[in-house]
Amino acid sequence: MAQQELDGGDTVNERRPIIYQANPLIEARKAMNTMEMRLFLIALQDVNPHLSKNDRFYDKKFPATHIAPAQVKEILGNGMYMTLLDKTCDSLAKRVLVIRMQDGMKFVPLFAVIQYRKRVGLDIRFNDEMRPYLLDIFEEGKGYTKIAMKQIFYLSSAYSMRLLELMLQYQGFMQDGCVRRHIELADLRFMLNVDERKYQRIQDFCKR
């Protein structure tokens, strides 16, 4: 898919309305805050994955995602957004996703490129190690979850984004118009990147 340039308008609506993640990535530990999650989601919008044997056109490598300065400012807020941008890019460059494997854990760096240029904008590109979870989904055969960006992008916290991802993973099993899923507390702490010593009761999650 060709790189997309945004010169104005709504960041979400200008790009793909649907994003896809392999199910192991949905259940991974994603240590990202709200702003980082939004940049992650925007980058996902530019990825055209291989989903089925009937696919004829899909990305062979990760495209670069370009976000114009106006959109960067919109995402980070109109206050001291340059300070927030420095901090967000610095932390996002260090983010490593933890993916459960049958025989252990896999630690995968999220992005290969994060670059901001004044009056040009922000450029980000996924690390090639993310291929099995974002590009080669059909080849991996682990299933995938599709999410409409309008459902998730403007949620107020990274926790709410993650909970919605986990629920939508089970949308194919909807009953009576509802998605139901049982998650053990230890698994919930892992997937939400919560210290294993905290929130030992479900009431603590509901409260905080």
Give an overview of the whole structure.
The chain is an alpha+beta fold and 208 residues long. The chain has helices at 23-26, 34-45, 69-76, 81-93, 131-134, 137-140, 149-152, 158-168, 185-191, 202-207; strands spanning 18-22, 65-67, 96-101, 104-109, 111-117, 121-126, 144-148. Helices cover 35% and strands 18% of the residues. It has a 3-stranded antiparallel sheet with strand order 2-6-5. The model is unreliable at 1-9 (pLDDT under 50).
List the helices and strands and how they pair.
Blueprint: E1 18-22, H1 23-26, H2 34-45, E2 65-67, H3 69-76, H4 81-93, E3 96-101, E4 104-109, E5 111-117, E6 121-126, H5 131-134, H6 137-140, E7 144-148, H7 149-152, H8 158-168, H9 185-191, H10 202-207
Antiparallel strand pairs: 1-7, 2-6, 3-4, 5-6
How would you briefly describe this protein structure?
This protein is an alpha+beta fold. It is 35% helix and 18% strand. A three-stranded antiparallel β-sheet has the order 2-6-5.
CATH fold title of the domain at 18-153:
Arc Repressor Mutant, subunit A
Helical amount among residues, as a percent range?
25-40%
Strand content: 15-25%
CATH class wording of the domain at 18-153: Mainly Alpha
Structural class of the helix and strand makeup? alpha+beta
CATH superfamily of the domain at 18-153: Winged helix-like DNA-binding domain superfamily/Winged helix DNA-binding domain
Alpha-carbon Rg, integer = 17 Å
CATH architecture of the domain at 18-153: Orthogonal Bundle
Order of helices and strands: EHHEHHEEEEHHEHHHH
Taking the sheet with the most strands, its summary is: 3 strands, antiparallel
End-to-end span in angstroms? 41 Å
Shape: globular
